[in-house]
Amino acid sequence: MPEGDTVYQAAARLAAVLTDRVLTAGELRHPRLSTVDLKGRVALAPRTVGKHLFLRFDRDLSFHSHLGLDGTWQVQPRAARWHKPAFQARAVFTTEDHQAVGFLLHDMALLPTAEEDRLVGHLGPDLLDPAWDESHSARALQRLTAVPEREIGDALLDQRVMAGVGNVYKTEVCHLLRVSPWTPVSDVDCTEAIRLSRELLDRNKMTPDRTTTGDTRRGRTLWVYGRTRVGCLRCGGRVMAGSQGEGTRERVAYYCPTCQPGPVRQH
C-alpha cells in the first residue's frame, strides 16, 4: 500500500533517470492535460510531501500526482515493455535512455513550481522532510493533540496532522505504543507516536522490503498488520480487526488485545 516511504522511493527512482535530462517525449493522459507536450523540458530534482509527488521541470513548472491506493511508477530502459496495461498509463516521460511511466495516478495537475504549496500547504509536517527539526516536531505535536478525545489511529492517518502515515504504519505505531487504535489521543504518549512514525518511515524510505520489526524474514516483517491468521508477532496471541473512520476514510484497524489494551470496535 503506498505510504510516505513508497512515494519517497518512487521519487528516488525517478530522480535517477530523469534529473538533468531532456525529455524526448512527455505525455499526460488525462482529458484536462492531454494537449500538454513536455518534450524538450529539462527534468529537475523531484519533491515529495507525504504521499504527494512533484516532478519539477525547468521554466518554473511542476507536475503533481498522488498514488492513491493503486498508483505506481515504473522506471525502465526506453525500449523495455511495460509491465502494466497501456490504458492504465497516466503519465509517460521519456529521455534518450529511459522511460518513466505513471500508472493509475490520482490528482494530476500542472502548476508553477512556486505555487506547489497551494496543493500541499494544508498538510502537516512531512515526516520524511530532510530538513526535519524540533520545529517540525512541535507543529506535529500541536496538531496531534489538538482534539484530545480523537482516536489515535484516526489522528495518525490524518495527513493534516503529519504527512506520510498510512494504514500499515498507523497499525504498527499503535502496536508499538501498546494502545488500541481507538484509544483517545489524551491517553497516548504523542511525542513518542511522532518519533516512532518518523523512525519507521525513515527506516524504510529506501528499501522495497518494508519492515517495522527490524526483521526482514518472510512472515516476520510486521507486528500485527494483516496477521489475523497467524497471530501477533510479539505475544503469539490472536490479532483482531475492526473498522475505523467514516465513509471514504474508513479503514481496517488490526490490533492485539493482549498487547494493546484499550477501547475496541470490531466489524
Description:
The two termini are 21 Å apart. The chain is of the alpha+beta class and 267 residues long. It is 23% helix and 20% strand. It is globular. It folds into 2 domains: 4-120, Alpha-Beta Barrel (N-terminal domain of MutM-like DNA repair proteins); 134-255, Helicase, Ruva Protein, domain 3. It has a 4-stranded antiparallel β-sheet, with helices on one face. Strands 2-3-4-8 form a 4-stranded antiparallel β-sheet, with helices on one face. A two-stranded antiparallel ribbon has the order 9-10.
CATH topology name of the largest domain, in short, is Helicase, Ruva Protein, domain 3
CATH class of the largest domain: Mainly Alpha
Oligomer: single chain
Largest sheet: 4 strands, antiparallel
Q: Name the overall outline.
A: globular
Low-confidence residue ranges: none
Percent strand equals 15-25%
Question: What attributes characterize this protein structure?
Answer:
alpha+beta, four-stranded antiparallel beta sheet, globular, 10 strands, single chain, N-terminal domain of MutM-like DNA repair proteins, 2 domains, Helicase, Ruva Protein, domain 3
Brief rundown of the structure:
By secondary structure, the protein is α+β, with helices and mostly antiparallel strands. 23% of the residues lie in helices and 20% in strands.
